[in-house]
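Q: what does this look like with cytidine-5'-monophosphate bound?
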Amino acid sequence: MALPSSPAPATKSKTCDVILALDVSTRAEAGAFLDRIGPDLRWVKIGLQMFLREGPEIVDAFARRGHKIFLDLKLHDIPNTVASAIRSLRRRPCDLLTIHATGGKEMMQQAAAAAHEANPNLRLLAVTVLTSMDDAGLAQTGVPGGAAAQVERLAALAFDAGVPGLICSPLELPALRAKFGSKPLLVTPGVRPSGVAAGDQKRTMTPREAAAAGADLIVIGRPLLQATDPRAALAAIRAEMAGA
Ligand code: C5P
């Protein structure tokens, strides 16, 4: 992928916050971890693993604890089906929801309208190219021009359809900010605090680099979930970003 190898200089001054990827299996396990990390954590990301096991009430349960909810369901279907699924979230206290941009403009337009109807505070995030795909993998699916071009093409389509933000790799941030400016909401996983093992994340940035490159929100899972003192780990990430 023809992406910049080092972070670009700061492009905006919005504050960047942390989303905890709550990648655990049960509500009880998640609740115990949230007790340990403490009340300073604002955002949690609920993925399919817990959503399918615990049901949509899990959204209400964590919102009642005072968290903002990022529901990472990566919806991808025909426009009517995606819009109907989003309308099923009516009145759920959910703040962010992912859809796949490859569903097309019509799907994203209907999804954006359904999100507004379901909950005026609900913002959609489009997934462009999964970071597990490289240029060769994309070519196998009939997309020959490489991931960087496809990310920009799908990002433009998503914004045109009324989707306000994207999930992106931290390495895509400089190009996206250069092309689309400061308005889109850019949320990035693949962030590793200095000195923490990258695990299976291959192309990472530190929280400070991601904030400087224009991330609005960074998604962090294992560096918090596996920390001996999650509260201190969160404070350290925040401190690192404040210096960005
Ligand atoms: O543990 P870690 O910090 O790697 O968790 C990152 C979270 O972001 C996980 O929930 C992972 O599924 C998600 N994610 C990702 N890369 C993407 C999209 C989502 O790591 N491209």
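The domain at 17-242 is CATH 3.20.20.70 (TIM Barrel). Residues 49 and 113 are 27 Å apart (CA to CA).
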